Amino acid sequence: MxxxxxxxxxxxxxxxGNIALAIIKFLAGIFGNSYALIADGIESVVxxxxxxxxxFGLKYSARPADENHPYGHGKAEPLVTFLVVVFLIIxxxxxxxxxxxxxxxxxxxxxxxxxxxxxxxxxxxxxxFHIVMQRSKKLNSTxxxxxxxxxxSDAITSVAAFIGITIAIFGGKGFEVADDYAAxxxxxxILYNCYKIFRPALSEVMDENNYEELTLxxxxxxxxxxxxxxxxxxxxxxxxxxxxxxxxxxxSGELTVTEGHNISHRxxxxxxxxxxxxxNVLIHIEPFEGSLE
Length: 293
Hints:
This protein has helices at 3-31, 35-61, 76-104, 113-139, 142-171, 177-205, 212-222, 257-274, and strands spanning 230-239, 242-252, 278-288. It is mainly alpha-helical. The chain folds into 2 domains: 3-205, Alpha-lytic protease prodomain-like (Up-down Bundle); 212-288, Alpha-Beta Plaits (2-Layer Sandwich), CATH 3.30.70.1350. The protein is elongated. Keywords: Membrane, Transmembrane, Transmembrane helix, Transport.
């Protein structure tokens, strides 16, 4: 299975799970008198739309390079991630406003069965977080990382709801608002996760060169190619699930242009073979005389 197809299947897995959970949360919240669960359901609905955006971003970014986009369409991924963050912020604001309204207007105590529902939701969401996060690391996908943090924020929201409902149930009359304060508390975590999603996407759009491990690997692989005496500049840019590299390779100054050209091609082929997540690799040949020590 291709990297793109695996990413798409992962998003579909998330989306179907969120649809099912949204229905469960709304029904349990309505019949169980729990606004924290209804707020949780609102977040799951937003997550479904966010997953659709991520799905679109992954499919678009998987398009091959063309005349107008010689580096491919990978930048669509972080741009879609920005939209996902906007969706999360909107859902956090909605939850906060509705929770505030419920604090002002008293309501009935939540039903005990809502705790069982929440326990199942927390376990499922945490498992989903680890599954999607593992695949995001495997595929180097910013959009999938955002998708994973959606699951984690949902799990945290559910934990807050669980605590709030427990306090309300055992505290009895007068503690109904514990459920609503739990929803407000969850909003803080949602906004924090927004930052964790936004920062890597911004780094990708701004072409920040902060890939130390990959740079070291590129330099080490380069030295295994016959004719390469060392490397100088190594600039890396991430676009979608690929890394584009500009590398200066040191070769003997006595070589002909043709010989240097052939070395650069062997080096590029070797890098792409050993590090399959590399996209466009530009090799600049530098003449070198002397010792690297």
